[in-house]
Amino acid sequence: MTQKTILRALAGETLDTPPIWMMRQAGRYLPEYRATRAQAGDFLSLCYNSELAAEVTLQPIRRYGFDASILFADILLLPQALGADLWFVTGEGPRLSTITTPDELKALKPVEAIHDTLNPIYETVKILSRELPSETTLIGFAGAPWTVATYMIAGKGTPDQGPAHALKDADKPTFEALLDLITDGTIEYLSKQIDAGAEVIKLFDSWAGSLKGDDFLNYAVKPAAKITAALKARYPDTPIIAFPRGAGEKYVGLHADIGADCIALDDGVTAPWAAAHVQTGGCVQGNLKSSHMVTGGDALVTETRAIVDAFKGGPHIFNLGHGITPDADPDNVQLMIDTVRGA
What is the reported pLDDT for 308? Predict the structure, then answer.
C-alpha cells in the first residue's frame, strides 16, 4: 500500500490524522510568493515560467510541510490555449475576449493545438515531480467546463454568472458547443499533467452553485463525469477530486454521479451534515472557513477540531472550504496544521 497519506485517504482509508493541504496555498499571503511574483514581472509570466512556478509551488511545502502540493497555474490558461485573449488587470482580476456567437466559437483553436501554449505548465509538473519530498503528493488541476465557460462568455468574473446563464437560455447550441470544447480540452490538458507526473487531479467548479434544477445536472455533473470517465479510462489509478462549490444539498450522491474518488466541500455545508450524507459515498475534503486564516485564535482551533472530529469515521482530507485569501496570516496556517496534527 502507498505510504502517501493523501493517496491512502483517496483510496478510501480512514486515517487517525487526516492529511492536509490548502487551496491557493501558494499565493499572496506568503512574503516569499510575493517576492517571486515580483521577479517574474506579472501573474501570467509567473504561470508560464516553469522554474518560478515550481518555486512558488514548493514554497508552502518548505514552510509548512503540507501533505500535498498543488500545481501553480490558473484555470484560464486553457481558454488562452484555445485562442481567447487573456490578460490580468491589477486589483480587478482576469479579462478575456468574449465568446458569445457561433462565429467567435468557430474562431477558437482545435483541442489538439492547446499543448503549444500549455507546454510550460507540463514542464512545471515535471520539475515538481522531481523536487517535491517523497512523502508529498502532487495534485494537478483544471477548471470545470461551466466555470471556465462563465469567464469566456462574460470576459471576466461576475457576481451571478449572468452572461453565461443568458447565453445558455438564448442560444443553447452555441453554449453547449462551447462547453463541449472546454470539456474535450480539459481532458487533454489533464492527461498531459498526469503524463508529466501529477498523481491526483482536482476539478474546480467554482460557480457550480449558480446552476439550478436540471442545469446543475447537465452543466456541472455531466461534464465532470465525462472528464472523470475519460481520465479513468486512460489512467485508472489516478484519483480525482471534484469540487462543485455551492452545491449544497446536491453534494449528496456526487461521488457516484461524477465517478470521483473524493468530493471537496465548501463551507456552506456543516461537517456533521456532510459526514452523514456525503462521506458515506467516499472520501471528502474540507471544509474550514477561509476567514479563520485571517482571524485565527481560539475560534480557528475549535472549528478545526470540530471538523476533524466530524469526519473521523471515514476517509477525509483536511482543507479549507475555499481558497486562502491574500490577507491571511501565515501564523494562522501553522496553527491550523498543528491543530489538525494534534501538536
Answer: 98
77/61 Cα distance (integer angstroms): 24
Catalytic residue among 28, 34, 63, 341: 28
Q: Which of 151, 189, 219, 251 is labelled catalytic? A: 151
Cell 507526473 belongs to: 197
Based on the residue annotation, tell me whether 37 is a catalytic residue of this protein: yes
151 annotated active-site: yes
Q: Identity (one letter) of the amino acid at 183? A: T
- The sign of the torsion formed by the CA atoms of 28, 31, 36, 42 equals positive
- Torsion angle of C-alpha atoms 124, 125, 131, 132, degrees rounded to 10: 130
Reported as a single tens digit per residue, the pLDDT across 53-104 is 999 999 999 999 999 999 999 999 999 999 999 999 888 899 999 999 999 9
- Which residues have a Cβ under 8 Å from the Cβ of 42 and sit 6 or more positions away? 88
Please check whether residue 69 is in contact with residue 139, taking contact to mean a CB–CB distance below 8 angstroms.
yes
Q: Extract the residue ranges of the chain whose pLDDT is less than 50.
A: 1
Q: What is d(CA 283, CA 261) in angstroms, rounded to the nearest whole number?
A: 7
* pLDDT of the residue at 343: 63
245 is annotated as an active-site residue = no
Instruction: Compute how many other C-beta atoms are within 10 angstroms of the C-beta atom of residue 179.
Output: 22
Catalytic (active site) residue 298: no
What sign results for the dihedral spanned by CA atoms 247, 250, 255, 259?
A: negative
Of the candidates 29, 33, 67, 74, the residue annotated as catalytic is: 74
**Alpha helix ranges (H) inside the chain:** 5-10, 31-40, 43-48, 50-64, 77-81, 102-106, 114-131, 145-154, 162-170, 172-196, 214-216, 222-234, 254, 271-277, 292-295, 297-310, 330-340
**pLDDT by residue (tens digit) across 289-330?**
999 999 999 999 999 999 999 999 999 999 999 999 999 999
pLDDT score of 2: 57
The catalytic position among 24, 33, 261, 266 is 24
Place of cell 469515521: 313
Q: Is 171 a catalytic residue?
A: no
pLDDT of residue 192: 98
Q: How high is the pLDDT of residue 293?
A: 98
